Amino acid sequence: MKKVLFIIIAVVAVFAFTNKQKTEFSKESLSQKLITSDSTQITFKEILAQHKGKTTVIEVWASWCSDCVKAMPKVKDMQANHPKVDYVFISMDKAFDKWKNGIAKHELKGAHYWATDGMKGAFGKSIDLDWIPRYIILDKKGKIITYRAIETDFDQINATLKTLE
Fold first, then answer.
1. What is the distance between the alpha carbons of residues 108 and 115, in angstroms, rounded to a whole number?
2. Which InterPro entries match (predicted)?
């Protein structure tokens, strides 16, 4: 019985530490290069700098992701309810044309970037990506307020955005 209890405590402790809330991005993630919609490279650090001074929601998504597509109406509601927030979409699509078609099909409004190596690539690893859609919220100073939110967390996301207005 003591062994089972010890194992349970150990598993909970490991899980708690791996999901620790981060307040800033790693140097590795900031140096990652993404692609803009006009096919130029830009670092994640440069993307974040463009949104400094604004509350920002980053959505990591892909056009092939059914959970991402199901969440689109909630994303549009969030944008309508929080119009002063900047929205950054980072795609994990496998092909440039799929990404561009997904933006058009879902009429996504915001800044768009493509991580060319997918979810398990360097950028995905650098932000601890384990599920999409994934939402990250930054305050006006660029500090991470929410590091891991998914499509079931929209009540939390909207409440957080309300406090940052």
1. 17
2. Thioredoxin-like_fold, Thioredoxin-like_sf, Thioredoxin_domain, Thioredoxin_ResA/DsbE_sf
Does this model's pTM top 0.85? Answer: yes
Q: How distant, in Å, are the alpha carbons of 28, 112, 125, 142, 147 from that of 47?
A: 14, 10, 18, 11, 17
Strand-pair category, 134-138 with 144-149: antiparallel
Among the residues of the chain, which ranges form H helices? 2-18, 27-31, 44-50, 66-81, 96-106, 122-126, 154-164
Domains plus CATH for the chain? 24-164 (3.40.30.10)
Residue 132 near residue 66 (C-beta atoms within 8 A): no
Q: Which residues make beta-bridge pairs with 41? A: 35
Rounded CA separation 97/36 (Å):
13
Q: Check if the beta carbon of residue 102 is closer than 8 Å to that of residue 114.
A: no
Q: CA–CA separation, 90 vs 116, rounded Å?
A: 10
